[in-house]
Amino acid sequence: MKKQNVTSADVARLAGVSRSTVSRCFKSDSRISDVTRKRVIEIADQLGYQVNKLARSMSTKESDLVGLVSSGLHDPFAVILVDKLISTLQKMGLHPILLDASNEKQLDISIKKLAQYQVKSIVITSGSPSSSIGAKFINRDIPVILLNRAGQLDQANLINCDNQKGAMLAAQALIDAGHTKLAFINSSFSTFSGVSRRDFFEQTLALKASAGDVTLEKINVEETGYQAGYKAALKTLSQQDHATGFFCATDNIAFGFMDAARYEMGKKIPDDVSVIGFDDLPLSARPTYDLTTIKQCPNNLAKAVAECINGIDTTSERIRKIIPVSLIKRKTIAAPPYQQL
Amino acid sequence: MKKQNVTSADVARLAGVSRSTVSRCFKSDSRISDVTRKRVIEIADQLGYQVNKLARSMSTKESDLVGLVSSGLHDPFAVILVDKLISTLQKMGLHPILLDASNEKQLDISIKKLAQYQVKSIVITSGSPSSSIGAKFINRDIPVILLNRAGQLDQANLINCDNQKGAMLAAQALIDAGHTKLAFINSSFSTFSGVSRRDFFEQTLALKASAGDVTLEKINVEETGYQAGYKAALKTLSQQDHATGFFCATDNIAFGFMDAARYEMGKKIPDDVSVIGFDDLPLSARPTYDLTTIKQCPNNLAKAVAECINGIDTTSERIRKIIPVSLIKRKTIAAPPYQQL
DNA sequence: TAAATCAATGCACACGTTTGCTCAAAATTT
DNA sequence: AAATTTTGAGCAAACGTGTGCATTGATTTA
Questions:
Q1: Who among A55, A86, A287 is closest to B98 (CB)?
Q2: Domain of B105?
Q3: B52 touches chain A (CB under 8 A)
Q4: pLDDT of A315 higher than 60
Q5: Which residues of A202-232 are buried (b: 16+ CB within 10 A; e: fewer)?
Q6: What average pLDDT score do residues A304-314 get?
Q7: Using the beta-carbon criterion (under 8 Å), do A95 and B110 form an inter-chain contact?
Q8: Which nucleotide lies nearest residue A24, CA to C1'?
Q9: Are both B172 and B232 inside the same structural domain?
């Protein structure tokens, strides 16, 4: 009992023109007299006619559809990023099909289907899809954009926030405050961003260490996000001679760390321990945490993706883009406590 | 320089069969000899052939695409809900196209495009799209599902959490603790859920009020979410004889309320004021808040949507579904302080 | 005024599937 | 062995649109 779709033929008949003319009325470039166009559009509206994009795509071999794969919306920064991505794409007239990558098996199936929809491009945010899957897309000439994610794929376009600069700023901030016993907190299921930050952090310290001596403890916990930070605090702060300056791979981890430090271990922040995060989530600015952190701007990341998608047609070059970060000073870093005489 | 798509004709040629046969090999129902099917599929795999869903949809007039409109991912509960929706739909072999409804104008355009993609159904989560838009879809026989949202549209399918029960439980909890001066906190840009909870809260109190006397203050603030709660606390707690039992329309509002109450107004929770929220966000269980709240289960909501989408083919009846809620007792409700002798 | 240019529109094929109908061969029944 | 049913597979039309080419009438140029 489905109502028959109203098609271009219908409006053509009513307008007394050919289907071609109707078709051209809905594209900007074609030369159609203003008077005809106006009449046709009017009749189309009246009939409730809508272009069938599926048919159009088939004919033009182009599509407004974009695949957007994210490993669930559990990580708060991922949420903000996806949100920005969606609205940015929408403004460009592109339509994202979302894919959940939490379940690797499901993902494998679904990602294939994405190709079946002839998506214009596929953007993979930090998460777990195996690189072999991305390769499949490249085989079919569907451009792949890796966002804040490892770049195993040679042919993919890469967009990353400046983890190196961020890690450097974090190191600098802790050292400037006088800390010498530092630690890096992360989940052992960490994403590319996490290990990248750790490596650059370590690297920066190695440079500084020549001046004074600075120790670095690398802590990985078999949890993710908030829970990882929580567990990490329990573990490390119970030790006799624990570190005093903590760089958490993400703000979310920092929240867990702070909560456990305060409520379970009775530590004061920043009096007893200093903490710095990465992301600058909205929650970080709230009085509960007031977290000093490295800000990466989702807007700029989204903008870069947009430019990348548009640019892909024109250039065959793979794009490599680094998005700047900055230090946001709040209230979780202070001088280390006066400990041993 | 686009690589030519490999089509069913290509695999047909190589397999020495007709296109029809290839087509039927990828559908379950048709009668094709096992040996042919196996050979065809093998060749298809080898060629990297993928069904072109656009073409298929055009032929079958069916689509795996589903429109999912949400007013941005700012509200934390919305995020969880959307997340569950995406993974649930994915499991069903459906592909959600996400639409951001924050910007009403953009939305109007984008939602039209959704129809152009011949979506199987469109689900609108709590948010702002005008009801007239929904009506457009119904005109085109695209089923509309309203999720936690007002049901102005007669022909739409409705799925809501049990706001009535929730409000009742909240009222009961506060009254049982001994509170008589109650308040309801909400954003003045509130969604349907918010006003619904308020109305049921008031209604429940009216019943109780016959027994003892209970006052209700309704507070609306010109902010949203966390900020609304924050401002509300500043405003109401500065008054001489303020309420002691607060029902916040959402957990997120409750967080703002608690933060302001504690850090700006110097109140202790639950010693000075009691708070109850709605949603049961993960954050509510953390020690920072440990918020007593009404839990609504995103899983069940998503499941209901799934069933609804599936059921729509078979029955022409509009679906009305209420999803149960429950009270989660934590640490933000206690007896009111001993105030006036 | 004849020739050349141009603007507006129609024709018909292409895009990649699905599916009702047809048909031949094989299998089964009488 | 003849008649019937079943099985496997091909033909061709349909889905709704875009677009190169052809056509026609109007306008400009020589």
A1: A86
A2: 65-161+298-323
A3: yes
A4: no
A5: eebbeeeeeeeebebeebbbebbbbbbbbbb
A6: 82
A7: yes
A8: D18
A9: yes
